[in-house]
Design a protein that fits this description.
Blueprint (H helix, E strand, L loop, with lengths): L4 E5 L6 H15 L2 E8 L22 H17 L6 E5 L2 H11 L4 E5 L12 H9 L3 E5 L4
Parallel strand pairs: 1-2, 1-4, 2-3, 4-5
The protein binds adenosine monophosphate.
């Protein structure tokens, strides 16, 4: 009945740290592997050869992307997440989150109840879509305004 692989979602919204902390605690409780995903949906995708998954170890000449990578790597380091469990991808958050969860066999996805797209809602649009489309369990951490 326990979880073995928890996928944490990161959107850099105001209460995002709280979602990350919940994930870290649950991973300890269940002795689960922890993965981290951030979907780039707010900066334009450059013409690159490597597809939608951003290689975190390679330098690019895109300053915006490098800044995003630095921020992401700092958080992943702080959470102690293995390098091969870090996912920074281009695309649509709900699709990429559920796709990575399936591909990596995560059995729990953790999202905030709302982030950047759902401030006025009980449940944000990404959270709602992940709940609908994920094939594994989803924990929506209730965030208060
Ligand atoms: P939203 O429904 O978009 O307001 O966001 C709800 C939650 O979905 C956030 O608290 C995050 O956990 C997750 N999320 C939203 N956008 C992204 C994103 N671009 N990358 C990763 N996770 C996200």
């Amino acid at each position: 009945m326990s979880y073995q692989h928890i996928l944490l979602t990161l959107d850099y919204s105001e209460h995002g740290d709280y979602v990350l902390q919940k994930g870290q605690v649950l991973a300890q409780v269940f002795s689960a592997k922890l993965s981290l995903v951030h979907v780039l949906d707010n900066i334009p995708m450059p013409q690159v050869a490597y597809g939608t998954i951003i290689p975190l170890t390679e330098q690019t000449d895109n300053a915006l992307l490098e800044a995003e990578k630095t921020k992401f790597i700092q958080i992943a380091d702080k959470l102690g997440i293995d390098e091969d469990s870090r996912w920074m991808v281009w695309g649509n958050p709900k699709q990429e989150i559920t796709h990575i969860a399936e591909k990596e066999n995560a059995d729990l996805i953790i999202v905030g109840s709302h982030g950047r797209h759902g401030l006025a809602l009980l449940l944000g649009s990404t959270a709602n879509a992940v709940l609908h489309y994920a094939k594994c369990d989803v924990l929506a951490v209730r965030l208060q305004d």
